[in-house]
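Researcher: We are triaging several targets before committing to wet-lab work. For this one, the compound of interest is adenosine-5'-triphosphate. I'm pasting the protein sequence and the ligand SMILES. What I need is the predicted three-dimensional arrangement of the protein with the ligand bound, expressed as structure tokens, so it can go straight into our comparison scripts without reformatting.
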Amino acid sequence: MDSILIRLSDVSASPFGAEDNGTQNAVLRQIRLTIARGEWITVIGRNGSGKSTLAKLLSGAKFALVEGEAYRHGDLHRQGLSVPVVMQQPEASMIGVTPWEDIVLMLEQNGVRGEVIPEAAAAALRQVGLYARRHQPVQSLSGGQKQLTAIAGCTAVSAPLLILDEPTAMLDPEASELVMEQVRSLNRAGAAVVWITQRLAELREGDRVVAIDRSEVRFDGKAERFFEREGDGQGACVQEGTSMCELLGFDPPYAVETAWELERLGFPVRPLPIRPESLAKVVMRYA
Ligand SMILES: Nc1ncnc2c1ncn2[C@@H]1O[C@H](COP(=O)(O)OP(=O)(O)OP(=O)(O)O)[C@@H](O)[C@H]1O
């Protein structure tokens, strides 16, 4: 089985309405990106950098102008549907009046046989903890519950790739954590995930980070390398003493900032902690 789901080779793209810009000023420029089965990719970028446009491009949406080569695995378009995208406004990706109806419609649209639909819908809603609320009107669900319903739809149809465009932007920390955990669990079960965010605190050690800045991919590599302040000759840190994170003007997660400060005080920390629990382990070593 081909392990590559999507390969973009120097793709420039402009959505409808922006095509007059020409490719030089395209909303995405010269994008090189490969997504393999089962991968986790965190896409970061500031407002207007091109994240949502990338989400649309990856989902298979039509564009006014595309240059370059784009390969997409046939599994992404079973039954002619595009890749599921969970958006910032939870309602945007919902089609049913209740979570139950939403999942059932999603299964029907994906050509799942009628007799197995109730069981599949129940299993997906149980997994995200929403079975008891399955007949509650969508408009009365909390933001987090709506996002979980959208995620249950992706679980139910076993999508090989799932794109989430700032899914936690409107959620409180607890709901954000719950949504992230559900998506990580889908990823552990084999789905590739593109998680778009502006919150670097959502990164975990080992994540692949794709940083977009002004329509271009400026970094694609392991999170640890994104915060690396010393050049290793392989191009992750292009300016000695300054990480790619700083160069591109992102706020690092708290654990990274603390590790940098420890380093400044003469306590180099390796491997670089990204999550607070990893930082705690490092501090314990000094205690
Ligand atoms: N259809 C369009 N017509 C004209 N300009 C567009 C169109 N779609 C996107 N753009 C422009 O392209 C740039 C990137 O937009 P995009 O929505 O991809 O950014 P983003 O990184 O998702 O931003 P945000 O974090 O604010 O949602 C913006 O300057 C936006 O105004």
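Researcher: Any quick observations?
Model: The longest helix spans residues 173-188.
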